[in-house]
Design a protein that fits this description.
With 72 residues, the protein is mostly helical. The protein is 32% helix and 6% strand. The protein has a two-stranded antiparallel ribbon. The protein is globular.
Length: 72
């Protein structure tokens, strides 16, 4: 988002009541580590693995493959 409002984004995601509509479990730290999740890190890892994302030591394997940048 080209912003340094990391805490604001984290707080907004933590308060997300529409987990099925807004897939905030897909928000990952910029270094590929999992980060937090309103329903817990284990639930986040489980959801990501169901989507085919491979994770090791709380980091996404082959992060460059899945990374999305908003910078144009």
């Amino acid at each position: 988002l080209n912003s340094k409002a990391y805490r604001a984004v984290g707080n907004a995601m933590a308060k997300n009541k529409n987990l099925n509509t807004i897939p905030c479990h897909r928000v990952i730290n910029s270094n590929g580590s999992i980060g937090g999740y309103a329903q817990g890190r284990n639930k986040k890892i489980s959801l990501l693995k169901k989507e085919g994302i491979m994770i090791n030591n709380n980091k996404i394997i082959d992060f460059k493959k899945f990374k999305y940048s908003f910078i144009i």
